[in-house]
Each structure stands twice: as C-alpha cells, then as structure tokens.
Design brief:
Helices cover about 40% and strands about 20% of the residues. It has helices at about 1-10, 15-25, 50-65, 75-85, 100-110, 125-135, 150-190, 245-255, 260-275, 355, 365-380, 385-395; strands spanning about 45, 65-70, 90, 120, 140-145, 200-205, 215-220, 225-230, 280-290, 295-300, 305-310, 315-320, 335-340, 345-350, 405-410. It has a five-stranded parallel β-sheet with strand order 2-1-3-4-5, sandwiched between helices. The protein has a five-stranded antiparallel β-sheet with strand order 6-15-14-11-12. A five-stranded antiparallel β-sheet has the order 7-8-9-10-13, covered by helices on one side. Helix 4 (about 75-85) packs parallel to helix 5.
C-alpha cells in the first residue's frame, strides 16, 4: 500500500523526492492510540484540495496506524463525514467552493452530541484567521508544511480526548437511563393503594419528577384516621429514597392496630440507623378519632399546623415542638403532641415549607400570615384548595419554585 501511494505521488508531482523520502522514513510501528477504539483503528478524514499535500498527509496518518479517508473539497468532505462518521478531521482552510471554515461548521452540526475533533492544517499566519479556525468549531491547528512528529502527537492527544469524551457521554447517558428507571420505580412504589382520600383535599406540586414530600393517610381497624405529611431534606430522587420504607411501615403498623405515636417512633428509629445523617425527615401528623371527635396533632420540624373553625376563623395552631425524624436515637426521641377537640366541618391544615418559603421578585417569603389569610378565603368562599397554587404563582411571578409544595386539608367528620 505504501509503495502504491508513493507511485501515485510521483506521478502527480515530479520533483518532490525529498518529501517522498521523508514519508518513506516514517516509523511503521502502529501507534497504539490509533487502536484504542475497541472496534478497530480510529478513522481520520483528510480534507485538502492540494493533491500533493493531501496524499502526503494520508501517507503519514495511515502509517501512524489510523484508517484514512480523503476528500478534495468541502462538499465531498461533508458527504463523506455523514456516511463514514470519522473520529477526527484534518481540515484545509482555503479551498474552492465551500472553504474550511464553513465545512467545519457543517461537520460540527452533523456530529451533534458526538465530539469529533477538527484540526486545521493551514499556511495562514494571520491571527484573525487562526481565530476563525476556532470560532467555526475547530479544535486545533497545525502549520503547513506538516511536521510529522507534531502531527502524530496531536492526533494521539485529540484521539484520547475524543475517547474520554465519548466514554463520559456514554456514562452520562447510562446514568440518565438508570435515573429514569429509578424514578419510574420510585413512582410505582409510592402509588399508595391504601391511601384514604375521604375528608381530605390536597395540593401537591413536586419540584422534580420525584419529590421529597410524602403524604400518607389510612384508617386503623377501629376507624381512627391517621395522616402524615412529611418532607425529606432536599428534593428530588435523593430526598425520596426513604419514602418507600416509611410508607410500608406506616401501612403495616396501622393495619396491625399500632397507634400513630408508635408508628412515628418506629420510623425515627429506622431512619436514624439506616439513612445518612444529613437526610432527615420533618413531619406533621394527625390521629383523629371520629367517635370522640378529638384530633391528636404532632409536629416535628414542619411549619405550624393550622386548625380552622367552620366559619374560617383560626381556632388553634400547633407549632413544631419536636426534632425531625432521623436525628435523635430512640432513647432520646420524645414525641410532642396536642389534643384538640374538633366539631364536624372544622379543618386542619398541614403543609411543608415549600409554600411558606416561596419567594417573590423582592426576595420576600410568602409566609404563614398570607397562607392563613388565603385559607380563610377558601373556607368562607367554599373555594377549591387549588387556588393556593394560583395565588402562589401570582405572588412569585417569574421567580422559579425552590422546593416541593404540599398542603393537606383534613375536615373533621
């Protein structure tokens, strides 16, 4: 193959013996970098309208151990790139028709997410023109006549860089795929068929596909309603990893007749032993006995739980009086609760801090005072609880949400 190439050059350009002699003296040992791709040697596309330069460059590159493609002009190069998808491109600048700058733009558009280094081979000394090589998407440039040592080194370096980029992209795509699968699993796990919806209204807006907020509702065998609204540290997939266990523990223990305080203590113990120290679980809860019409309200780390009369006036408020779950060991964990008698139609609101800490363009928080006012309006006007979200959108305007938002309304029966 090498002899055939030399004969071709000899026919095309007489009087270039010194150049050809240099080409024949190239080290014929294949560069291992050229074979780092498991599918075989990397492919280099050589683009140059000068036959002498192009063929000489082909000989050098092929003897470095690469598979070589050649194009005489920009249009041919673009077509060949589409068809062959080479790993690297050596590009001339000045060519008839489509010049090297435009050809490189087209190639970079075609390569999309796949990184293909383009190295310009140019005689242009002007700094502005060299800048154009980079501005159009080129990654490097070498001066003509090409120095074989420098060319070999640059191809090797950019080849490794392209391989690293490809490996990084493959890893990223794999992680994205795994994350998507994990999200679907988490969503499926959190579909709680035992969730008791009666006498509840809920506003729920996750910041991401998975949420750090959790809502549980279940009637015990004796008819006592048990409700938990919780918020894991942070949001998204990481924040939601503890949700399946908490949901499972809640449903099983309530089914077996355990009271809500026992359930919460069990969740705290497991969370402290198994979960990272910085991933705790703030929660508020209601244990309502419809026979006595008494609600035991527990608040460990969430905003103030609000109790409203049927006419919309505030009846009671239950501030957080205990540590979030997962911080204290079982022997130091105490449950704080308030027992409040509820008349039929009176309502308890539990919510995470996503709504009260929503900020507007002036960096003001929505706050509990605005929330109380809006809840009163909802009750007196017999309005949908979804109005809270509409109000929040008006308040924050162009400010993006910073956290998951959950508001639960329980009506005594």
């Amino acid at each position: 193959m090498l002899i055939q190439r030399i004969n071709v050059v000899s026919i095309i350009i007489l009087g270039t013996i010194s150049c050809l002699a240099l080409a024949t003296q190239v080290n014929c040992h294949k560069n291992l970098d050229a074979f780092s791709n498991s599918k075989g040697p990397k492919t280099v596309l050589v683009v140059d309208d000068d036959d002498e330069v192009r063929v000489y460059t082909e000989i050098l590159v092929e003897d470095f151990g690469y598979r070589v493609l050649a194009a005489q002009n920009g249009e041919e190069a673009v077509g060949m790139f589409q068809k062959e998808q080479p790993d690297m491109v050596l590009m001339d600048v000045i060519m008839p028709g489509m010049n090297g700058y435009e050809t490189t733009r087209r190639i970079k558009e075609l390569s999309k997410d796949r990184f293909t280094p383009v190295l310009f081979l140019t005689k242009v000394p002007d700094e502005d023109d060299l800048a154009k090589c980079l501005d159009c998407g080129g990654d490097d440039f070498l001066s003509k006549p090409v120095n074989k040592v420098i060319l070999k080194s640059r191809l090797s370096s950019w080849g490794r860089h392209a391989s690293d980029r490809a490996e990084l992209r493959a890893t990223r795509l794999h992680l994205q795929s795994e994350r998507s699968r994990m999200i679907q699993i988490m969503k499926k796990v959190r579909l709680n068929k035992e969730f008791q919806k009666s006498h509840l209204r809920l506003v729920y807006t996750p910041l991401e596909e998975t949420s750090g907020d959790l809502v549980l509702s279940k009637d015990a065998p004796g008819g006592i309603r048990n409700i938990i609204v919780g918020d894991f540290t942070g949001h998204g997939l990481t924040a939601s990893v503890g949700a399946p266990h908490i949901q499972d523990t809640f449903n099983k223990m309530i089914n077996k007749g355990y009271n809500l305080e026992e359930v919460i203590r069990s969740i705290n113990k497991w969370h402290k032993q198994r979960m990272p120290a910085d991933l705790f679980f703030a929660m508020s809860a209601i244990e309502y006995n419809p026979k006595t019409q008494v609600a035991k309200i527990i608040n460990h780390g969430l905003p103030t739980a609000l109790v409203f009369k049927a006419d919309g006036t505030l009846k009671e408020s239950v501030t957080s009086d205990g540590m979030s779950l997962g911080i204290l060991p079982d022997e130091l964990f105490d449950i704080a609760s308030s027992s409040i008698a509820l008349n039929k139609g009176e309502r308890v609101f539990l919510f995470t801090d996503g709504i009260t800490e929503t900020i507007n363009q002036q960096q003001q928080m929505y706050g509990e005072a605005r929330l109380q006012e809006k809840i009163t309006e909802i009750i007196t006007g017999n309005l949908s609880i979804d109005i809270l979200l509409e109000t929040l959108d008006v308040f924050r305007k162009d400010q993006s949400l910073q956290d998951d938002i959950t508001v639960l309304e329980f009506t005594a029966f």
